């Protein structure tokens, strides 16, 4: 510790003894003035009930207008509700303050910081301040390491500091996230040390990883439990248990093997054996320990493996673990987004383990599993939105705003106010019934964060409902009921299921006061085996047999009765009810499969009856078949043959289904070997009344398409080729499972032929979208947070089109100022959808919302009430919303492929579509390629979809840039579209965009000067190549400083006899470059093709701060990371070069490019982005003036766009006035003139493009 940290620690340690003296000394040492003043005025302002709680209030220290209050309360315990009401009064008059509460005898202290955030009220829409409360607790049961470290940061170093700056310093010192991050970093070090040591002992990586997670989970869980004083009334039991061992004289290094074994497997399982060697003072404590039956402290195969391997965790290792945990405070109080304790809370378990899963065996590799922890605020927001949406369908659309206020209420005043209005509308009965029956699923449950979030909100709503209705229910029983009836989760990872169970158990016990006999004689924890299940959410398959969804309907009453009975028995097992029919999880597994068998038998019987019916028809005499015909004219024999063939095909289809059912039945012979199947695992959900979940939400894994593999397989067990094949096979299973979920959409109803194959480049989360939607019931609501890449990349087309045609899209939300995942290289969106429908109504509104402030500042009902009511584009200080219809989205993403008519012909012949239904009813939906309005207002729309479809050979939905157009685009974008009607054109319409050279082996084909000199390769076989535009200084760069040259040789090796290049080629063959799949098909393999020609313009494939399009005067080749631009008119090269290098083009590039990663400041320009890039048509600008301006800029050094536009990148863009460099301004002005932009609008372009760049830079850095 440094000096002030040590002094702070000592004085905090003396608080309960020296009390006021220590408090005054502490803040004197921290540099504050002693300002003792009585606070009776504040007491008088408090409500009577609270003034009776307050003993005294004093101003005792401060610095100028910054005040520090000490408030002694009369109760012996410090209650958050008391503190919040008092803080409201204080902050009304003193916005800059620190408030310190103590209990009646000054043994417990709360140091409370109130961070004020601008908010908006419903009445007058003016900004107010929402209070975010953070507290540090000091007391005899609290450790001081973290507290002293954070409070020491309150030290004043400059007595002239302003009150606002000092308040900001306090806000930073009370930052919970900083404590969280430090805990995690230190936890990872502990985790790795134990894991590495176990691996050295066993050489078993999987065991070392799994056991370490389990071992540290048990210890962390115990640290929360001991805060309940359930072991010897001792909040430091674990430390004292260790100290007793050290003094006992027992064999060294036996604490884990003996003492922890007794504590975990005996004492906490109600099986204490009273070993003779255990010190006498511990017998009674261990005998009366709580009965934690849930499974966490049950000896399992991992423990058996630990013993079989004869593993050892030494006392020295354990002491390091103990010292780590002892240095932090653990709080068992449930935090809300606006009231948090600066300590380790149960949420930390989720953060730790969802982060640990991304830490591979290599210390510096991360993100392999694609699992990242969703922050508390986003969880709260998503749970609230999903509940409002689903509850509205139950309670009534007219009450949607009231439900927003009900669920988004945080403070006691807010809750009391809205609860009265709900009562006035007589809705509490309906709300209570909904809360008791709602079913919620997270299909990629991870550590259970979303289920815990839902549990917290539903618990609060249920307590309020009970209060209004007059029902009494202990919080422990209430939470247990909610988990039993409402919460479900699935994850493929064993650790995730275990940690999710752990977190739900903690939520049950952390704020529960139970009698001794309740916690020692009865099983304290419920069995979560059939609530949180391990399995693959996406692929339900046994061998080659797909069990995605057994199509059932009209089940007979005896099967429905068994399903109802099973649901009841599962609840008994959950509650450890001894009257239950099934006492083991194996017996319930068996009953699940038995019911599934019965459903299969029922389906098979229906099919056999249908086959029998068809056989009877086929076996009838010919004249009876003829009598069935509606048209008996024509060739009777031909009609008979046709009819017989139809029946035979129908019979064969039924027989095929029957064979599938028989195969399915055979695979289910051993219930314990059956993989996870939705219809088996949750048969009570899918075969019950609702046939699906009310809410599906979560944060699915982030796995790029090239890394997708069966999560149950280990790549170390396969060769590279075998692993590639395994990945391909699993991806095919993923796609097939989606086709089975939505056969009417993806397949032909006539012959089961696949009509809409999915893009093989879909990232894993796309499959979670599609599967998750299929798990909803007919009134369900869906909310995911995922990567935003599907909004803009090519493979996003599949999901976009599916959503437009099948799903009510409510909200797609982004945040331009803060990334959701700090550790993930990904930018995210939050999506709220309805359940899939046979027919999406076009009068629905799709709302794209870009928030301009972090999500924690928009947890307000008025914000979302405004969003709900918006019928058109709207901009506020907090957000910008774009509203579209499904028809507009479908039109904007559709285009003609393979047309032969000119654009003009298509535009004049096409007719207006009849509507959204016409577009959805055919796969051939389109509008002209040359559309210029990317927000749904093309210059010439098709007038009739049927006539329009006949104009081209194929039409399809090709995807759209939802992210660039509807989220990231600033307001000036829409003004440009309005003024640019008829003047904007797609780059692909006036030029060809080609990929650069793909060598397939850069190490061979690209040579630097040293390598050229080493081999002495002849100049005729070398061509300069542009590897990156970073090598260039200006638009018309002379290219004299290129660092690489490329092998360009098309001669046969015989013709190269005795040449230096032949020696180099033969070296390449020895190095096996010639057999690489990417080159071996060439003839000869070292030839990149005689047809390759240099292009006049070179366009970047990525964009950062700097952007230029090269005028390739030296006819140099470009690498694959660049695009070649070939104008369709040779006379327009310079004009196009000028337009492409204007700031307006850069603006459109930044809008439509794909944000590459969350943690990088560059963005990806796909080739389709380049082709569809909107630019000002050069024909609308005077060529002579345009070229004069272009040549002024062409030889200037091009730097950061921020600097070129005259901005300081370290300052807010909007706080500065655009001041572009003279030559850039000259070129921009003539482009702006073509669109008749005003000066204010030109400034907006400069501000907008630079804000897009700055936002990407700052978002990449955001933590």
Quaternary organisation: single chain
| Radius of gyration, in angstroms, nearest whole number | 35 Å
Query: What distance lies between the first and last C-alpha atoms, to the nearest angstrom?
Result: 26 Å
How would the global form be characterised?
A: globular
The tally of strands reads: 36
Task: Summarize the biggest pleated sheet.
Answer: 10 strands, mixed
CATH architecture of the largest domain: 3-Layer(aba) Sandwich
SS-based class: alpha+beta
Q: How many discrete structural domains? A: 7
Number of helices: 52
Strand content: 5-15%
* CATH fold-level name of the largest domain: Rossmann fold
User: What is the average per-residue confidence, as pLDDT, rounded to a whole number?
Assistant: 84
Query: CATH class of the largest domain, anyone?
Result: Alpha Beta
Helix content range: 40-55%
In the predicted model, the low-confidence regions spanning at least 5 consecutive residues are 120-127, 359-371, 896-955
Give me the side-by-side strand order of the main sheet: 10-9-8-13-14-16-15-17-19-18
């Amino acid at each position: 510790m440094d000096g002030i940290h040590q002094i702070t620690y000592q004085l905090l340690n003396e608080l309960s003894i020296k009390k006021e003296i220590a408090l005054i000394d502490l803040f004197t040492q921290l540099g504050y003035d002693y300002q003792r003043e009585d606070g009776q005025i504040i007491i008088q302002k408090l409500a009577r009930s609270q003034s009776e709680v307050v003993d005294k209030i004093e101003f005792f220290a401060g610095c100028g207008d910054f005040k520090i209050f000490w408030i002694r309360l009369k109760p012996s315990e410090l209650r958050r509700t008391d503190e919040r009401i008092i803080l409201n009064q204080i902050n009304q008059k003193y916005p800059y303050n620190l408030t310190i509460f103590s209990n009646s005898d000054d043994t417990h202290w709360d140091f409370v910081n109130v961070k004020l955030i601008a908010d908006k009220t419903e009445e007058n829409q003016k900004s107010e301040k929402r209070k975010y409360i953070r507290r540090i607790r000091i007391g005899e049961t609290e450790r001081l390491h973290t507290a002293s470290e954070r409070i020491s940061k309150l030290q004043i170093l400059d007595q002239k500091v302003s009150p606002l700056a000092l308040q900001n310093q306090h806000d930073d010192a009370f930052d919970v996230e900083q404590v969280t991050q430090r805990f995690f970093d230190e936890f990872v070090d502990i985790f790795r040390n134990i894991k590495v040591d176990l691996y050295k002992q066993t050489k078993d990586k999987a065991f070392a990883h799994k056991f370490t997670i389990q071992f540290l989970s048990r210890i962390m869980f115990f640290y929360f439990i001991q805060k309940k004083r359930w072991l010897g009334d001792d909040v430091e039991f674990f430390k004292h248990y260790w100290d007793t061992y050290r003094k006992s004289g027992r064999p060294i290094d036996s604490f884990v093997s003996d003492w922890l074994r007794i504590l975990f497997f005996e004492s906490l399982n109600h099986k204490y054996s009273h070993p003779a060697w255990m010190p006498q003072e511990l017998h009674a404590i261990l005998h009366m320990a709580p009965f934690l039956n849930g499974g966490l402290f049950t000896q399992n195969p991992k423990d058996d493996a630990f013993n079989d391997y004869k593993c050892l965790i030494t006392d020295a290792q354990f002491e390091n673990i103990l010292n780590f945990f002892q240095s932090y405070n653990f709080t068992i109080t449930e935090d809300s987004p606006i009231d948090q304790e600066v300590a380790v809370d149960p949420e930390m378990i989720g953060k730790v383990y969802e982060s640990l899963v991304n830490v591979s065996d290599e210390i510096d590799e991360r993100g392999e599993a694609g699992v990242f922890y969703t922050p508390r605020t986003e969880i709260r927001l998503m749970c609230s939105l999903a509940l409002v949406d689903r509850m509205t369908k139950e309670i009534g659309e007219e009450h949607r705003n009231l439900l927003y206020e009900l669920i988004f209420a945080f403070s006691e005043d807010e809750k009391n106010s809205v609860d009265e209005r709900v009562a006035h509308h007589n809705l509490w009965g309906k709300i209570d019934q909904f809360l008791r029956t709602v079913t919620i699923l997270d299909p990629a449950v991870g550590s259970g964060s979303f289920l815990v979030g839902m549990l917290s909100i539903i618990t609060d709503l249920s307590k309020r409902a009970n209060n209004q209705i007059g029902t009494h229910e202990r919080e422990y029983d209430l939470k247990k009921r909610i988990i039993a009836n409402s919460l479900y989760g699935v994850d493929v990872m064993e650790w995730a299921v275990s940690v999710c169970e752990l977190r739900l158990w903690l939520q049950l016990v952390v704020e529960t006061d139970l009698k001794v006999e309740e916690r020692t004689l009865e099983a304290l924890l419920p069995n979560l085996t059939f609530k949180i299940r391990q399995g693959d959410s996406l692929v339900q398959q046994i061998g080659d047999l797909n069990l995605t969804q057994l199509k059932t309907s009209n089940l007979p009453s005896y099967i429905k009765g068994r399903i109802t009975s099973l649901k009841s028995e599962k609840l008994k097992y959950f509650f450890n009810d001894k009257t239950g029919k099934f006492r083991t999880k194996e017996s319930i597994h068996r009953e699940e499969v038995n019911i599934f068998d019965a459903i299969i038998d029922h389906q098979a019987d229906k099919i056999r009856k249908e086959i029998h019916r068809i056989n009877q028809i086929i076996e009838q005499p010919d004249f009876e078949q003829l009598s069935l015909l509606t048209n008996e004219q024509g060739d009777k024999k031909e009609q008979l043959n046709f009819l017989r063939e139809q029946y035979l095909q129908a019979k064969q289809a039924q027989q095929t289904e029957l064979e599938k059912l028989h195969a399915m039945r055979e695979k289910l012979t051993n219930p314990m070997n059956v993989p996870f199947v939705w219809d088996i695992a949750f048969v009570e959900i899918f075969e019950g009344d609702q046939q699906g979940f009310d809410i599906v939400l979560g944060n699915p894994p982030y796995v790029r398409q090239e890394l997708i593999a069966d999560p149950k397989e280990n790549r170390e067990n396969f060769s590279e080729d075998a692993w590639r094949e395994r990945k391909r096979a699993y991806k095919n299973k993923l796609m097939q499972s989606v086709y089975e979920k939505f056969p009417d959409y993806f397949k032909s109803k006539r012959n089961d032929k696949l009509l809409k194959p999915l893009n093989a480049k879909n990232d894993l989360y796309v499959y979670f979208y599609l599967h998750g939607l299929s798990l909803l019931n007919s009134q369900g609501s869906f909310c995911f947070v995922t990567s935003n890449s599907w909004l803009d990349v090519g493979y996003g087309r599949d999901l976009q089109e599916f959503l437009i045609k099948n799903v009510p899209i409510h909200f797609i939300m982004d945040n331009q100022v803060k990334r959701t995942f700090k550790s993930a290289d990904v930018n995210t969106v939050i999506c709220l959808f309805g359940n899939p429908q046979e027919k999406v109504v076009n009068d629905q509104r799709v709302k794209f919302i870009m928030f301009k402030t972090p999500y924690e500042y928009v947890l307000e009902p008025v914000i979302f009430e405004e969003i709900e009511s918006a019928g058109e584009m709207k901009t506020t200080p907090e957000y910008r919303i774009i509203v579209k219809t499904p028809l507009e989205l479908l039109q904007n993403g559709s285009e003609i492929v393979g047309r032969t008519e000119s654009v003009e012909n298509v535009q004049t012949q096409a007719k207006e579509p009849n509507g959204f239904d016409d577009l959805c009813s055919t796969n051939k939906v389109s509008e002209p390629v040359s559309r210029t309005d990317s927000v749904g207002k093309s210059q010439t729309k098709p007038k009739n979809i049927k006539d329009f479809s006949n104009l081209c050979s194929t039409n399809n939905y090709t995807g759209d840039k939802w992210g660039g157009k509807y989220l990231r685009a600033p307001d000036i974008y829409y003004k440009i579209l309005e003024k640019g009607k008829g003047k904007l054109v797609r780059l692909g319409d006036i030029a060809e965009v080609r990929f650069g050279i793909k060598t397939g082996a850069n190490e061979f084909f690209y040579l630097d000067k040293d390598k050229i000199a080493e081999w002495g390769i002849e100049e005729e076989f070398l061509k300069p190549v542009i590897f990156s535009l970073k090598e260039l200084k200006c638009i018309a760069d002379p290219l004299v400083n290129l660092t690489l040259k490329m092998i360009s040789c098309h001669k046969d090796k015989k013709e190269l006899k005795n040449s230096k290049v032949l020696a180099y080629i033969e070296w390449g063959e020895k190095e096996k470059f010639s057999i690489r799949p990417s080159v071996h098909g060439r003839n000869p393999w070292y030839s990149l093709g005689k047809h390759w020609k240099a292009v006049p313009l070179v366009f970047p494939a990525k964009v950062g701060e700097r952007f230029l399009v090269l005028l390739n005067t030296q006819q140099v080749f470009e690498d694959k990371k660049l695009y070649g631009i070939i104008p369709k008119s040779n006379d327009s090269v310079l004009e196009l070069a000028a337009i492409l290098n204007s700031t307006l083009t850069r603006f459109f590039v930044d809008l439509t490019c794909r944000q590459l990663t969350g943690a990088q400041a560059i963005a990806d320009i796909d080739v389709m982005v380049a082709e569809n890039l909107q630019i000002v048509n050069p024909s609308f600008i005077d060529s002579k003036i345009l070229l004069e301006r272009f040549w002024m800029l062409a030889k200037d050094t091009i730097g950061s766009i921020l600097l070129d536009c005259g901005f300081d990148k370290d300052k807010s863009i909007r706080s500065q006035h655009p001041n572009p460099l003279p030559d850039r301004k000259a070129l921009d002005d003539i482009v702006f003139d073509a669109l008749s932009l005003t000066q204010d609008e030109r400034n907006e372009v400069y501000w907008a493009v630079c804000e897009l760049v700055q936002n990407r830079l700052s978002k990449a850095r955001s933590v």
